[in-house]
Design brief:
Layout: H1 2-21, H2 26-34, H3 38-62, H4 72-88, H5 96-108, H6 112-144, H7 149-174, H8 181-186, H9 192-197, H10 201-224, H11 226-253, H12 260-275, H13 285-296, H14 301-333
Helix pairs in contact: 1-13, 3-4, 3-11, 3-14, 4-5, 4-14, 5-6, 6-7, 6-10, 6-11, 6-12, 11-12, 11-14, 12-13, 13-14
Length: 335
């Protein structure tokens, strides 16, 4: 059954690639590459690195209560290793967080569940800011970009989903003083695989108190700290703004001055669609949706394809090459 689904998904991906490539004027593509302004291209590469610098500072600052004196270089390696895992795992890129907690806990001799609480809190700041950009981008695309009815329905569905999620988050936030991680996770004792490991619910509660309470304590401490929340949100804005600038600079590299707001909208919707797919890192779907959206506002397929693929190549250079090296470095250093 798994092989059948992989085959189906592979056919879908090939179909998407075909739809994109069949519209490209490769002669125009060739001349675009010849006229690439290397200054803006190199600046785009450096700009994405600046985005990672903001990201690293945010993680270090969010976790300062449990790691008072973090090693900047070590955290940078942990960041890239986590990005590597998030990129090669399917879905919404969350596999890297447990890996980060593992390496940080091992380096500083801290409980991995405590560290995971800090890592997840940091991730939540990142998600909250990205949700603001995503909701704005979807609303903007539906209102101002000439897109197909099918894509409009899909984006409206995403918008409704995020609004519902926002309401649920607000509801639980109002009840946060009564929220108890042990009681919450203890409700899943009825599941057969949980009962198999913990026949008696008291055993499950005891396990959760030892493991989850540390996670919950650190998570709540970070989320309730107004200064950490404010700084983390501001740094998250920095992460995203510099990420959008990468594509803006790539357009400038081809002598095209596009609206930065348009870049923001297209990049966010592309990532949103990629996260909704089961492919590792949303590969294929992120690129395809971004190219189609750029073409919908009058940008040629050749230019849109060149900019999008160069932007993704820069990202994959950091995520896969630098991230892979960082993962190998951490595994050797912390044997």
């Amino acid at each position: 059954m798994k092989n059948i689904w992989r085959l189906i998904l592979g056919v879908v991906l090939l179909g998407l690639v075909y739809l994109v490539l069949k519209e490209i004027d490769f002669v125009e593509l060739y001349y675009l590459i010849l006229n690439l302004n290397l200054f803006y291209f190199i600046l785009a590469i450096f700009t994405l690195f600046v985005s990672f610098i903001f990201w690293n500072y945010r993680t270090m600052y969010a976790m300062k209560s449990i790691i008072p004196h973090p090693d900047y270089k070590f955290f940078f390696h942990v960041l890239f290793a986590g990005v590597f895992i998030n990129t090669v795992t399917p879905g919404a890129r969350i596999g890297g967080e447990p890996l980060k907690a593992h390496f940080i806990g091992k380096k500083y001799n801290k409980s991995k569940m405590d560290v995971l609480g800090g890592v997840i809190a940091d991730k939540l700041f990142h998600i909250l800011v990205s949700l603001v950009f995503v909701i704005f981008s979807v609303f903007y695309a539906i209102t101002y970009i000439n897109i197909s009815k099918e894509l409009t329905w899909i984006l409206e569905g995403f918008l409704v989903f995020f609004l519902i999620v926002g309401l649920l988050v607000a509801f639980f936030n109002l009840r946060k003083s009564k929220f108890n991680f042990v009681n919450f996770f203890g409700r899943f004792h009825f599941l057969w695989f949980v009962k198999k490991k913990f026949p008696d619910k008291k055993d499950l509660d005891s396990f959760l108190k030892k493991r989850v309470m540390g996670f919950g304590r650190v998570f709540k401490k970070i989320m309730k700290d107004k200064k950490i929340a404010l700084v983390s949100v501001l740094l998250s804005f920095g992460v995203w703004i510099f990420y959008y600038l990468v594509y803006y600079l790539l357009f400038l590299a081809f002598g095209v001055n596009v609206n930065l707001l348009l870049v923001l909208v297209v990049v966010n919707i592309g990532i949103l669609i990629g996260d909704a797919t089961p492919f590792p890192g949303g590969i294929g779907f992120i690129e395809g949706s971004m190219i189609l959206l750029y073409s919908a506002v009058g940008i040629s397929f050749a230019l849109a394809t060149t900019v999008v693929f160069l932007g993704r190549i820069i990202f994959y250079f950091y995520a896969l090459f630098v991230g892979g090296l960082s993962l190998l470095y951490l595994e050797n250093k912390l044997k």
